[in-house]
Design brief:
Layout: E1 4-10, H1 16-29, E2 38-42, E3 45-53, E4 62-70, E5 73-79, E6 82-83, E7 88-89, E8 109-113, E9 120-126, E10 134-140, E11 143-149, E12 170-178, E13 181-187, H2 208-211, E14 218-224, E15 243-244, E16 264-265, E17 281-286, E18 297-301, E19 305-312, E20 323-329
Parallel strand pairs: 14-15
Antiparallel strand pairs: 1-9, 2-3, 3-4, 4-5, 5-8, 6-7, 9-10, 10-11, 11-12, 12-13, 13-14, 16-17, 17-20, 18-19, 19-20
Length: about 325
């Protein structure tokens, strides 16, 4: 199976309302919603609320993704409840929402900086294997962010107690390199103390960065080792653990007649859901170039297996350094 792809475009000079329309169209087409739960203008900020019901029988079984759209970017926070009549989050501050301000983006996580002089594209890739899973690329000029929101048709792990806290299903890709190796991970975003997964570290804190930028924590990560004549610290990476993915070099292991850099698919990308990454989304760690663009075609077998680049980072060493790519299969 292959992914379906659709591009939603706001042409320069676009407005905040037009930017919000891209997300509305893409989220509806992805099956995340049939309409915004709430939609309103506050000052110059377009506010949009996406309601996702993970378990309607539980006290915190719904998550409200609070998007803000302006002419300088897209911003996000979350809430455990929302009153569409008053355009306000409900509950207790810091537990259930960070702030009630609707006319300023200062209390939200910035997903991407934007400018109206540049055309903005939101690209939706939906799996043909599991149509409940979609990944989105928001991009303009040289800026991009690749993210997903867990659909309500997907299954939260049974050991997550939504009677005690809520689940934040937002995740983004984070691709980087260190030395000769490539690192690919998925990270969570803005959080609250009621977040059943990430909230426990926030007790006593009222500092916005603890709930937004510094709350972007690793969910799970993978890495591939580059090709060196000796170890030379190539395996060293202090901090969060990463799972090694197998690659093969003919210079190291002569059983490989050519270097092997496969596309890895069906990987776990969040330990908090039972679904894995569908077989038509994958990772590879490329060793032959350090020049990529979003939308490039990665050919395994022409006309039989072709993938499109959603996200990338280029290792400075073109041949021996692993450059991670996040891919969607199109053929």
């Amino acid at each position: 199976m292959a992914c379906t792809k659709e591009t939603y475009t706001a042409t320069a000079t676009w407005t905040a309302s037009q930017l919000a329309q891209l997300f509305e169209d893409a989220f509806i087409d992805a099956g995340l919603m049939t309409a915004w739960f709430d939609s309103f203008l506050s000052g110059s900020i377009e506010n949009r609320i996406l309601e996702v019901t993970y378990d309607g029988t539980k006290a915190y079984g719904k998550t409200y993704y609070w998007f803000m759209f302006s002419t300088v970017g897209v911003f996000l926070h979350v809430a455990t409840g929302w009153n569409a009549a008053t355009d306000q989050p409900t509950g207790t501050q810091y537990l259930d929402f960070f702030a009630t301000t609707t006319n300023s983006t200062g209390n939200h996580l910035q997903l991407i900086p934007l400018g109206t002089a540049n055309t903005v594209e939101l690209v939706r890739y939906t799996s043909g294997v599991d149509t409940d899973q979609s990944w989105f690329v928001i991009k303009s000029s040289t800026s991009r962010r690749v993210f997903s929101i867990v659909n309500d048709a997907m299954t939260i792990q049974p050991w997550i107690d939504l009677g005690k806290g809520f689940y934040n299903g937002y995740a983004r890709t984070n691709l980087t390199t260190i030395g000769q190796q490539g690192l690919a991970s998925w990270q969570t975003g803005a959080t609250l103390r009621r977040d059943i997964v990430m909230g426990c570290g926030l007790v006593g804190s009222t500092t916005i960065s603890h709930y937004t930028s510094s709350a972007e924590e690793l969910l799970i990560g993978y890495r591939a080792v580059g090709h060196l004549s000796s170890n030379s610290g190539n395996f060293d990476f202090p901090g969060a653990p990463y799972i090694f993915l197998p690659v093969g070099f003919s210079a190291t292991n002569p059983a490989y007649t050519s270097n092997s850099n496969p596309v890895f698919h069906s990987l776990t990308w969040s330990p908090y859901i039972t679904e894995t990454l569908p077989a038509d989304f994958g990772l590879t760690f490329y060793y032959a170039t350090n020049s990529f663009s979003q939308g490039d075609t990665f050919v395994v077998s022409a006309g039989t297996e072709e993938w499109e680049v959603l996200d990338f980072t280029a290792n400075a060493s073109a041949v021996t350094g692993a450059s991670p790519l996040f891919l969607a299969r199109m053929v």
